[in-house]
């Protein structure tokens, strides 16, 4: 479905599924008369809005005019600092702001906010949608935003009714004067409230949680209807006047350059072709239809040139093999930098009577998101640039576009459509993003260009989930309890991979899931051997935890077996002074009907076993129990029980959905997913050779949310990391085979 973007379309009739053009002209001509304009540039030239933004304090999230617009029909338009990609952030933000504004989230129209300092609301000073940060790090700020807007409406109501503010209260969507029985809808107060200043943030009082109407409730997703009926728009759906479509063919290995095009004239003569273009490491075809562009670009015969010594990208060697790389990592012995070093690990390992050694490694993974990469670029007659681009960090992308084009930031409008899948794919990856190509092509032809990478090009240029080989050593005391543990990981983290080098400080994404464990093991050393590889790396759902928790929690079970301990009891023992994690572990056992490791015979006659694992990513604690059997030599996961403690929650329905989704992806990477590279090229260029978990292999998922009241943690990523080790530990209990590498499809079980 293509939807044409009409710059004259009025904002007053826009809905969530309609593309938003935040240009000056749109807002000046399209804002509903009488609306309480609490929105960025709505209208952009209004003196009041500009003054409010300029006069706002440095305190984050206090620039109310940057976020909200209350319309005469009582609909509330919220410009959200975060991107929506299926994780439910738009709905959660409507609940949080609506709670303090006293407006039903169902009345909200939520859109992605444009780039701008006003939208930096995270407590860490960043503006990204990732790391499961959106809700947990903006929760108090966004609540206060709603409270400030409510205070403005109360003040407007007091003026219009001629009564003191102290006599007024609110009910959803209206200001109420109980003494006289009068009330005013928020929309009726818009014009008067428009002229009021934003109150002092310290003057507003937030609602007591016992009075919450919407926070903590399973509020219906705001985007569910449009997505389920095909009305939701993604970047690939958008269309502007006079637009050309583009398709690309990338070099088979990153770093190679375009040489001779042997059949360029024939390709130019193909149906619908507008032009053929050479790009860094790629060729492109522009056409009136994307299918014509795709067929033509695939027909181009390119003499690719080998990378030169001064290549600006990380060149992929012609002999690179992912399997050989795993072996190299496992054999790399240093030097190592310590992240944790407590006690005297070396001495205890030397003196112990019971020592356990093991080496683990993981596999490369693609992101495999449903929506292939795309970008739309248009240079306007005044020389300004508009770009439509799915992204997780709009300010970073706009800054990069400015750097590439030489344009001032004020001349660049970045639109952030819905994302057709997250998983870390839409961060700033120099060689794995289509927008530089779209911008270059639009500039070359003087017409708007929409570029879509085919699935094959996406698999070729996608950044990969990092790999690591971890050498473990551990010592047990005379009673079989862990006395010391050492984990040395040969790896390159995604953050240092993007930088191209290791920094002075260790990349926390390289070791998270190995470091920071809460188990009471007095002597421990966690270290990294930095090994820069040829593959381009990126962030993947739950980042380092997605691999490191598999390593650590599986090895912990090895220690339990060696010491003659039940792995569940071992964890209880090591967490005996940690009430929160003990409660969580007991909760998942209760959820599963009581811990039993097995093997045991199920009601259907199959032989089964269970495994347990824990993880602590992004401020949230999780505990997982998996039940497995073996069918035709492969693992079948019947049930996953997960207890999750994010401190407190906003929407339990979204939490449960996120747990189910994370478990599905966790099982997929555990059982079948892997990106295999041979001779410097990916084996898979589509899903035919990159298997993902089929519905028939999906486990039943059981969720228990434990609200400990601790500081709020994340939701989108934390449910994933403990899945793989729980399954691996169950397999070991059932078969006696210890799985030290993934995916399990590489192993045969009996």
UniProtKB/TrEMBL annotation:
Q: Which residues form the Aldehyde oxidase/xanthine dehydrogenase a/b hammerhead domain?
A: 229-308
Entry GO MF terms: oxidoreductase activity
Residues folding into a coiled coil are none
Q: Which domain of life is it from?
A: Bacteria
Q: Which Gene3D superfamilies match?
A: Aldehyde oxidase/xanthine dehydrogenase, a/b hammerhead, Aldehyde oxidase/xanthine dehydrogenase, molybdopterin binding domain
This protein is called what? Isoquinoline 1-oxidoreductase
List the Pfam families. Answer: MoCoBD_1 (PF02738), MoCoBD_2 (PF20256)
Tell me which InterPro entries the record gives: Ald_Oxase/Xan_DH_a/b, AldOxase/xan_DH_MoCoBD1, AldOxase/xan_DH_MoCoBD2, AldOxase/xan_DH_Mopterin-bd_sf, N-heterocyclic_Hydroxylase, OxRdtase_Mopterin-bd_su_IorB, TAT_signal
Q: Please report the organism this UniProt entry assigns to the protein.
A: Pseudomonas chlororaphis
């Amino acid at each position: 479905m293509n939807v044409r973007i009409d710059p004259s379309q009025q904002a007053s009739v826009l809905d969530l599924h309609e593309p938003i053009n935040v240009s000056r002209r749109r807002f000046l001509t399209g804002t509903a008369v009488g609306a309480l304009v609490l929105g960025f540039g709505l209208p952009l030239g209004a003196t009041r809005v500009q003054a409010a933004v300029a006069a706002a304090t440095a305190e984050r999230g206090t620039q109310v005019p940057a976020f909200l617009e209350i319309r005469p029909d009582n609909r509330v338009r919220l410009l959200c600092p975060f991107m929506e990609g299926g994780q439910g952030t738009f709905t959660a933000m409507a609940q949080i702001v609506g709670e303090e504004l006293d407006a039903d989230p169902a009345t909200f129209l939520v859109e992605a906010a444009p780039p701008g300092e006003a939208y930096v609301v995270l407590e860490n000073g960043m503006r990204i949608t990732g790391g499961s940060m959106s809700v947990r790090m903006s929760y108090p700020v966004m609540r206060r935003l709603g409270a400030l807007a409510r205070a403005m409406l109360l003040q407007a109501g007091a003026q219009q009714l001629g009564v003191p503010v102290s006599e007024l209260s609110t009910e959803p969507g209206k200001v109420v004067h109980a003494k006289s029985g009068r009330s005013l809808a928020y929309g009726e107060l818009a014009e008067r409230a428009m002229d009021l200043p934003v109150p002092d943030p310290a003057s507003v009082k937030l609602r007591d949680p016992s009075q919450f109407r919407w926070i903590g409730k399973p509020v219906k997703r705001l985007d569910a209807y449009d997505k389920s009926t095909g009305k939701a728009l993604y970047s690939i759906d958008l269309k502007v006047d006079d637009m050309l479509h583009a398709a690309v063919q990338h070099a088979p290995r990153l770093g190679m350059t375009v040489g001779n095009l042997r059949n360029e004239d024939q390709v130019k003569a193909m149906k619908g072709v507008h032009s053929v273009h050479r790009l860094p490491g790629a060729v492109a075809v522009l056409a009136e239809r994307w299918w014509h562009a795709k067929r033509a670009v695939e027909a181009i015969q390119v003499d690719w040139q080998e990378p030169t010594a001064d290549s600006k990208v990380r060149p992929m060697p012609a002999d690179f093999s992912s399997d050989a790389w795993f072996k190299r990592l496992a054999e790399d012995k240093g030097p190592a930098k310590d992240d944790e070093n407590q006690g005297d690990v070396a001495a205890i390992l030397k003196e112990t009577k019971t020592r356990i050694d093991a080496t683990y490694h993981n596999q490369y993974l693609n992101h495999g998101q449903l929506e292939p990469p795309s970008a739309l670029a248009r240079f306007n007659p005044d020389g300004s640039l508009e770009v439509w681009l799915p992204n997780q960090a709009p300010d970073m992308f706009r800054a990069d576009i400015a750097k590439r084009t030489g344009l001032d930031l004020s001349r660049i409008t970045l639109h952030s459509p819905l994302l057709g899948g997250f998983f870390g794919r839409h961060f700033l990856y120099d060689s794995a993003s289509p927008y530089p190509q779209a911008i270059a092509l639009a500039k070359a032809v003087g017409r708007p260009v929409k570029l879509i990478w085919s699935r094959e090009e996406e698999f070729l240029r996608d950044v990969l989930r990092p790999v690591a080989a971890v050498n473990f050593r551990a010592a047990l005391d005379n009673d079989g309890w862990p006395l010391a543990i050492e984990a040395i990981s040969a790896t390159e983290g995604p953050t240092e991979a993007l930088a191209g080098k290791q920094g002075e400080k260790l990349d926390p994404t390289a070791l998270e899931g190995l470091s920071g464990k809460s188990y009471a093991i007095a002597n421990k050393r966690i270290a990294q051997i930095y090994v820069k590889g040829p593959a381009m790396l990126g962030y993947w759902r739950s980042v380092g935890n997605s691999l490191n928790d598999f390593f650590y929690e599986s090895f912990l079970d090895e220690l339990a077996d060696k010491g003659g301990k039940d792995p569940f009891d071992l964890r209880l023992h090591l967490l005996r002074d940690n009430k929160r994690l003990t409660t969580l572990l007991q909760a998942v056992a209760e959820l599963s009907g009581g811990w039993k490791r097995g093997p045991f015979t199920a009601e259907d006659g199959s032989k089964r076993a269970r495994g347990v694992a824990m993880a602590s990513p992004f401020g949230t604690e999780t505990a997982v129990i998996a039940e497995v059997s073996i069918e035709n030599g492969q693992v079948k996961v019947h049930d996953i029980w997960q207890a999750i403690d994010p401190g407190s929650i906003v929407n339990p329905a979204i939490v449960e959905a996120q747990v189910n989704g994370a478990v599905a992806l966790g099982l997929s990477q555990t059982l079948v997913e892997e990106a295999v590279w041979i001779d410097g090229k990916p084996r898979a260029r589509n899903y035919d050779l990159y298997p993902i978990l089929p519905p028939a292999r999906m486990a039943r998922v059981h969720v228990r949310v434990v609200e400990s009241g601790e500081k709020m943690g994340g939701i989108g990523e934390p449910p994933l990391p403990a899945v793989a080790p729980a399954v691996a530990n169950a397999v070991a209990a059932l078969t006696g085979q210890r799985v030290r590498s993934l995916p399990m499809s590489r192993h045969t079980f009996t």
